[in-house]
Design a protein that fits this description.
This protein has 397 residues and is of the alpha/beta class. It has two domains: 8-260, 3-Layer(aba) Sandwich (Aspartate Aminotransferase, domain 2), CATH 3.40.640; 264-396, Aspartate Aminotransferase, domain 1, CATH 3.90.1150.10. Helices cover 39% and strands 15% of the residues. It has 16 helices and twelve strands. It has helices at residues 14-17, 44-52, 66-79, 90-101, 116-125, 141-147, 171-179, 194-197, 231-244, 250-260, 263-282, 301-307, 323-332, 352-355, 362-367, 384-396, and strands at residues 83-87, 107-111, 132-136, 153-159, 185-189, 207-211, 225-229, 287-291, 314-319, 337-338, 348-350, 374-378. The strands form two sheets. Strands 1-7-6-5-4-2-3 form a seven-stranded mixed sheet, with helices on both faces. The chain has a five-stranded mixed sheet with strand order 8-9-12-11-10. Helix 3 (66-79) runs parallel beside helix 10 (250-260), helix 4 packs across helix 9 and helix 13 packs across helix 16 (384-396). The longest helix has 20 residues, at 263-282. The radius of gyration is 22 Å and the shape is globular.
Length: 397
C-alpha cells in the first residue's frame, strides 16, 4: 500500500487534513481547548527571550491563545497566506484591518455592493476621522481607475462574490488598479467563496477577510472573523487587535478547527446543490430572474469560470410576485429555515427586504437594488432533490 503521507498535499488541504506536528498536550489528536487568560514565565530570562522574539509562546489572553493560534495557522494554510489573525466576528476583522491601514486624510475605494455593514463603517464612521471614500460599480474598470487618488488612496476594498446578487469581482482587474496606486492595499472579502472555491492571494490580493461564522465554521454555532495575508501586514493588524480587544475565545476557535476539517466536503456538496437549484429555478414560471455565477445568464459567469473552482452555495432569485406574496412563499418552506445567515449545514432562506432592510421603505430599498420580491437561499447539506421539492411546494402553495 502506498504511503499516503508521502504525497504532496493539494493546495488548500494542508490546514484541513493535517500537516502540523502532533499536539504536545496529552498527545491529543484534536487541538486542545486552552482555557487560560494568563500564562506564567519561568523566570525573567524567559521574559526577555519572549520580548526579543527568540521564543514563541503566549503571554496574556488578549494577545494570543494556543487554540486560537492553531486555528490561525490552519486558515493561513488554506488561503496560501503567510499569516492569519482571528477576531471575535467578521466585522471585527474588517474594522480592525481598516483602522490599522488608514488615518485621517486617506482615501478608500470600495464597490457599491460590498457587505452593507462594511460599507456603512467606511462611509459613516471612518468619515468622522477625516477618511474619504468613493463607491464604484463592480466590474467598471474605468470608474475604478478614475476613483483612485495616487498618494491618498490606501485601501481598495471589494467583496467577491457579493451579497445578495453574487457579483464576482475580476481580481486581476483590481490588482492592476492597486498597482497603479503605490501604497494602496487591496482587500477582498471572500466569505461567500471560501478558500475552496477561490484564493484571492494567488491573484495578487494583499489581504483576504472572511466571516468564519459562515462556511468556515459551517454549523451556525460560532461567531468569528479572520484576516489573511503577508506576515508583516497581518502582525500589525494582530497588534491592534490586542489594543482594541476583539479577541476570539478558545471554545469558538476549537469549533472553527472542527468545522475546517469538513470544509471541502461541505463546500463541494453545496456547490453541486446550488447549481442544480439555480438551474431548476431558472426554468420555473413564477421566477422572474435567478442570480448565480454558475449560470451562463449571470453577468459575471465568464469571470467566475476563470477565477473560481466552484460557484458557491448561495442562490438569489426574484419572483413574479408582490412583497406579501413573496413572504408567503418563504413562509411556506418546510425544509428551508428562515434565518439571516448562510454557509451552514442547514438550508436557510430569507427575504432581504424584511430580514436586512426592514427599516427602509420599498422605494428606498429599490433605490439600492433590494427588491421586495427578492429571495436569498443558502443551501445546506440536504439532498438537492429535497431542496427543490421544498421550493416547488412553496411556490405552488
Amino acid at each position: 500500500m502506498a504511503n499516503i503521507r508521502s504525497k504532496e498535499p493539494k493546495p488548500g488541504t494542508l490546514a484541513v487534513h493535517g500537516g502540523e506536528p502532533r499536539n504536545k498536550a496529552h498527545d491529543s489528536v484534536t487541538t486542545p481547548i486552552v482555557w487560560s487568560a494568563t500564562y506564567a514565565f519561568a523566570d525573567t530570562a524567559e521574559i526577555e527571550r519572549y520580548f526579543k522574539g527568540d521564543i514563541e509562546r503566549e503571554e496574556y489572553g488578549r494577545y494570543g491563545n494556543p487554540t486560537v493560534r492553531a486555528a490561525e495557522k490552519k486558515l493561513a494554510a488554506l488561503e496560501g497566506a503567510e499569516d492569519a489573525a482571528l477576531f471575535s466576528s467578521g466585522m471585527a476583522a474588517a474594522t480592525t484591518a481598516l483602522f490599522e491601514l488608514l488615518k485621517g486624510g486617506d482615501h478608500v475605494v470600495l464597490t457599491k455592493d460590498c457587505y452593507r455593514r462594511t460599507r456603512q463603517f467606511v462611509t459613516r464612521f471612518l468619515s468622522r476621522l477625516g477618511i474619504e471614500s468613493t463607491l464604484v460599480e463592480p466590474g467598471d474598470e474605468a470608474a475604478l481607475r478614475s476613483a483612485l487618488r495616487p498618494g491618498r488612496t490606501k485601501v481598495i476594498l471589494a467583496e467577491s462574490p457579493t451579497n445578495p446578487y453574487l457579483r464576482v469581482a475580476d481580481l486581476s482587474l483590481f490588482a492592476r488598479a492597486r498597482d497603479a496606486c503605490p501604497g494602496a492595499n487591496l482587500i477582498i472579502d471572500g466569505t461567500f467563496a471560501t478558500p475552496v472555491n477561490q484564493r484571492p492571494l494567488d491573484e495578487g490580493v494583499d489581504l483576504v477577510i472572511h466571516s468564519c461564522t459562515k462556511y468556515l465554521g459551517g454549523h451556525n454555532d460560532l461567531l468569528a472573523g479572520v484576516v489573511c495575508g503577508r506576515s508583516g501586514l497581518v502582525q500589525a493588524i494582530r497588534d491592534l487587535r490586542g489594543v482594541l480587544g476583539a479577541v476570539l475565545d478558545p471554545q469558538s476557535a476549537f469549533l472553527l478547527i472542527r468545522g475546517l476539517k469538513t470544509l471541502p466536503l461541505r463546500v463541494n456538496r453545496q456547490n453541486e446543490t446550488a447549481l442544480a437549484v439555480a438551474r431548476w429555478l431558472e426554468q420555473h414560471p413564477r421566477v422572474r430572474q435567478v442570480f448565480y455565477p454558475g449560470l451562463p445568464s449571470h453577468p459575471d459567469h465568464a469571470i467566475a469560470r476563470r477565477q473560481m473552482r466552484g460557484f458557491g452555495g448561495v442562490v438569489s432569485f426574484r419572483l413574479r410576485a408582490s412583497a406579501r406574496e413573496t413572504s408567503r412563499v418563504v413562509d411556506a418552506c418546510k425544509l428551508a429555515t428562515i434565518a439571516p445567515s448562510l454557509g451552514a449545514a442547514e438550508t436557510l432562506i430569507e427575504q432581504p427586504a424584511y430580514m436586512s432592510y426592514f427599516e427602509l421603505t420599498s422605494e428606498e430599498r429599490e433605490a439600492i437594488g433590494i427588491y421586495d420580491d427578492l429571495v436569498r437561499l443558502s443551501v445546506g447539506l440536504e439532498d438537492a432533490e429535497d431542496v427543490i421539492a421544498d421550493l416547488e411546494q412553496a411556490l405552488s402553495a
